[in-house]
Design brief:
Alpha-Beta Plaits; about 45% helix; about 150 residues; flat; alpha+beta; about 25% strand; four-stranded antiparallel sheet
């Protein structure tokens, strides 16, 4: 009897593994992709970091968005800046994966719009200021999952 109960319990626990979702039947993945960089900014330095990225990361993404190279971008800051592995998230959204690939025409259009003065200032900030303010703790490329309505 104990064996029968154990077999029944094992079969019941194994059922979820057999009921796996199927792509394009139970869910779809978006064509658009989101890049996320998680950043740990040192204590009491978030405002300094935000000032820096406003002039570099945000400004360059504004140019890329205006040129149609990306859909959108966001900066998220934790309300609890001293907890966890990161306290700032930099998010950039692109129409599809190919928008992330190297592309000479996009690069040249961006550099023309961005200009050499911005390029030099960005290089100075990223090589001399940021190393003292933050550590990048993760980089991700993600897609949104949309679930189909359940048929059962």
């Amino acid at each position: 009897m104990k064996r029968l109960i154990a077999l029944g319990l094992a079969a019941a626990l194994a059922t979820p593994a057999a009921a796996q979702l199927k792509p394009y039947e139970d869910f779809t993945l978006s064509d658009s992709v989101v890049t996320m960089n998680t950043v740990k900014v040192k204590e009491n330095m978030i405002n300094d970091y935000l000032q820096g990225i406003r002039n570099t990361w945000v400004a360059s993404n504004a140019v890329a968005k205006r040129l149609g190279h990306m859909r959108d971008y966001r900066v998220l800051v934790s309300d609890l800046p001293n907890s966890g592995d990161f306290n700032v998230v930099l998010v950039a959204e692109f129409a599809n994966t190919s928008d992330l690939a190297p592309n000479k025409a996009r690069y040249e259009a961006f550099m023309k719009a961005w200009g050499t003065a911005n390029e030099a200032a960005t290089r100075t900030t990223t090589t001399t200021v940021y190393p003292n303010l933050r550590s990048i703790t993760g980089q991700y490329v993600m897609r949104e999952v949309t679930f189909m309505p359940a048929t059962k």
